[in-house]
Amino acid sequence: MFTGEADLPESSKSLTLLTVNLVLSSSRPMHQSQISEDVTLNCEVWGVHDGMEVEWYFQKEGRGKKLFPGEESHISMEQGVEKSGDLSLTVRGVRVQDEGTYICSVKAERHKIQQILQLQIRQPPKVTVIQNASPTIDLICRTDRYFPLDVKIDWLLNGVPIPNPDLESSSHRRNSDGTYNLTNILKVPAPAGETVPDIYTCSVSHVSVEEPILMNISITSPDIQSKTSYISAVNQVPCSQKLFFSCNMVNLFIVTSVPFTFVLVIIIWIKIHKTRREEKKMV
């Protein structure tokens, strides 16, 4: 009800009655969904239901079309909507192409009203980081199957942003389902000497996530990696008191990074020598 009496001249005072036959409402005019999810676009009518006509329309990029829930497999409406007043449309297995504007339209007697709803696709990226060590160290950060297009990639070293990083980046590649991929490559120097490992972080920001996605990778000096592999070989060789000198010679060769093939020859010689001594004792 609307009254127009307040602050009006005496001659203009009047009482106006407004009668509303239909009301359309939606609890959520804006909806967001990931790919393959089911989403229900809420639309409810209040008022006269007899003889009511319900139609749904879809608009995207300046083009529109009428939807037919009974004929299209991935959209549906509840049965008996004219009586219940629930005109909601369910989109099953949401796809990128389902993003757009949906219009819930109701006709009853001489009246026509509409409710406009938006569906946005927000697909977070899948992030992986790998190392390519030929001949320099390249750290490859892959962001796959995200939507919409814009994505931001930053690199950190031990938790601190890298100033002027040496980067290579691919162009955005579109997948068959409408999502996008992007590859970012960071060229880094090898850690010098026997230092603690460097921790590199690929930080990916996207509208689908509130906080950046962080993926870490540890880079160790090549010298440390090679010595570690040699020492692990030594641990497999049992040292007895009679072979103390020979075993320690093997340790010495390994620590000084003698080629692994030469170390294996020494180990084999030790085992043969030990076997012959045991055979002589038995005789």
UniProtKB/TrEMBL annotation:
Domain spans labelled Ig-like: 9-114, 124-220
Residue spans crossing the bilayer: 249-272
PROSITE patterns registered for this protein in UniProt: IG_LIKE, IG_MHC
Signal peptide start-end: none
Entry keyword set: Disulfide bond, Glycoprotein, Membrane, Transmembrane, Transmembrane helix
Gene3D superfamilies given in the database record: Immunoglobulins
Protein name: Ig-like domain-containing protein
Lineage, top ranks: Eukaryota, Metazoa, Chordata, Craniata, Vertebrata
